[in-house]
Design a protein that fits this description.
- The chain has helices at about 1-10, 35-45, 50-55, 60-70, 85-100, 130-150, 165-175, 190-195, 195-205, 210-220, 245-260, 280-295, 335-350, 355-375, 380-405, 405-415, 420-425, 435, 440-445, 450-455, and strands at about 110-115, 125-130, 180-185, 225, 230, 265-270, 275-280, 310, 320-325, 330-335.
- The protein is of the alpha+beta class.
- The strands form three sheets. A four-stranded mixed sheet has the order 2-1-4-5, with no helix packed on it. A four-stranded antiparallel sheet has the order 6-7-3-8, with helices on both faces.
- Helix 4 (about 60-70) packs across helix 6, helix 9 (about 195-205) runs antiparallel to helix 10 and helix 16 packs antiparallel against helix 17 (about 420-425).
- Mean pLDDT is about 85; it is low at about 1-15 and about 20-45.
């Protein structure tokens, strides 16, 4: 009997998380009593979708597990790793599925961690859910997103399938080209930490009739935060770090999108970054005042006055980009993004790292590949060319430091084809590595092709 039961279990590597089979006919107990299925149907609202059964569906759970494994991430408060999750689900999947279907699943508190903000100004708090909770959130996300996403504004681009930050930047560029050359740049202060739970759940309830789903989402919002071993209750906010938070944030801000559309504004939003494009500074000030009032009084959120402004688009940055002030504006990399790029390369090429040049170039190439995937879309190739030259100069400086003594430097320069006089002059120079990295001798000894052979990626595609 036990062997037969084992055969009926899902195959190894597949979750034991299946919903009740449709072929399992419920048995009536007494005459006149409703079967469990009939009772559930009678209790359901008109048009209610059985969302939780879809969440627990085998294919949906397999996809959720794959996504959680691909995203990796740190363990939560229970210490379970992503690698341990599949085996845990094989053993406890039926139990977890039952808890989700009967509305008794209880998430654990999230682990509070802090990371530096990209601009280096302050820290950003993240809430890392347990791996199991991330899996459940991902399964819920996949079911809700395909229903909600088509209803969101076409001007919203953040955390949505088939949309990207580059598309948001392109849309902003189009507004500027059409003559709307003033921007109302709105920054929501600690948006993820300030989302009002009651308003959020009311918005969810308008779209979801399955009360188990509403209860589960509320449980995730109110799971609490563990910091220094102590659990604190939370009454607002959606912790950054969980798969479901971006979808819920888009739901909250969909009300802002609809209001801006109703007013006829030209705007683009990516998560909590919202830019509205207008024709004059005076119009921008009016819009800033009225939209700020709407956000504070209607959405119960706060606008960061220090980071928000009415200005020319080329004086502001949007998602790491800015624009030129020409009649036909071009996308350019924002100065702060360039500064962050240089800071990262300096970190990777510091003299105390104690790794080989080959390993250093490999690590830099990995970073450049991701960076180019985002910023390679800029329309100012001269900036990319300058950065490419700067990176090679950093590497030549590293090599010069590694050669250390004058005798070694002279020998290495001669070995690489530098004339005797020039090699002697350079090796005996009192100037530092950064200046000599730009010298004719090192250009001969360490040409661009040398770094290309090591795997350094070009930033400018040359035809």
């Amino acid at each position: 009997m036990s062997e037969r039961r084992q055969k009926n279990r899902p195959e190894q590597g597949v979750l034991a998380f299946a919903v009740e089979s449709r072929s399992d006919a419920p048995t009536a107990t007494e005459e006149g009593t409703e079967t469990p299925v009939a009772k559930r149907k009678s209790e359901s609202l008109a048009g209610t979708e059985r969302l939780m059964e879809e969440v627990c569906g085998l294919e949906n759970c397999k996809q959720a597990l794959q996504r959680v494994k691909a995203n990796k991430g740190s363990p939560g408060v229970d210490g379970m790793t992503v690698e341990e999750l599949p085996e845990y689900l094989k053993q406890h999947g039926l139990e977890i599925g039952g808890q989700l279907r009967n509305g008794t699943y209880q998430p654990r508190p999230v682990k509070r961690v802090e990371i530096s903000k990209p601009d280096g100004q302050g820290m950003r708090e993240l809430g890392i859910p347990c791996v199991l909770d991330r899996f459940v959130q991902q399964a819920v996300l996949q079911v809700l997103q395909k229903r909600w996403d088509p209803t969101f504004s076409e001007h919203s681009h953040g955390f949505r399938p088939g949309r990207s930050a580059q598309q948001a930047v392109h849309e902003a560029q189009q507004y500027i080209a059409e003559g709307y050359r003033w921007v109302v740049d709105l920054d929501l202060e600690k948006f993820f930490d300030r989302v009002n739970h009651d308003r959020l759940l009311a918005a969810v309830a308008k779209r979801v009739a399955d009360k188990r789903m509403l209860k589960l989402i509320r449980a995730f919002l109110e799971a609490g935060v563990m910091e220094d071993g102590l659990v604190s209750a939370v009454d607002e906010g959606t912790p950054q770090g969980g798969p479901l938070s971006p979808l819920l944030s888009n739901l909250v801000l969909d009300e802002l999108d609809r209001e801006l559309e109703r007013r006829g504004h030209r705007f683009v939003r990516y998560a909590d970054d919202c830019n509205i494009y207008v024709g004059s500074e005076r119009a921008g000030q009016r819009v800033m005042e009225s939209v700020t009032r709407f956000i504070m009084h209607r959405l119960k959120l706060k606008v960061n006055q220090a980071k928000s402004a009415v200005a020319r688009p080329w004086q502001r940055k949007f998602l790491g980009f800015s624009f030129t002030s020409e009649r036909e504006p071009r996308r350019r990399i924002a100065p702060k993004a360039i500064a962050r790029f240089k800071e990262r390369i300096r970190e990777q090429t510091r003299r105390t790292r104690g790794i080989s040049l080959q390993q250093m170039v490999k690590e830099i190439a990995t970073y450049l590949r991701g960076w180019l995937g985002y910023f390679g879309d800029c329309q100012t190739p001269s900036v990319l060319h300058d950065l490419e030259t700067w990176v090679r100069r950093r590497l030549r400086s590293v090599v010069w430091k590694q050669w250390k003594r004058g005798r070694t430097r002279f020998r290495e320069l001669r070995k690489r084809g530098v004339s005797k006089d020039l090699a002697a002059q350079t090796a005996g120079s009192p100037h530092g590595p950064w200046r000599l990295a730009n010298s004719p001798a090192l250009a001969i000894a360490l040409p661009n092709a040398y770094f290309a052979e090591l795997g350094l990626l070009p930033l400018v595609v040359r035809s």
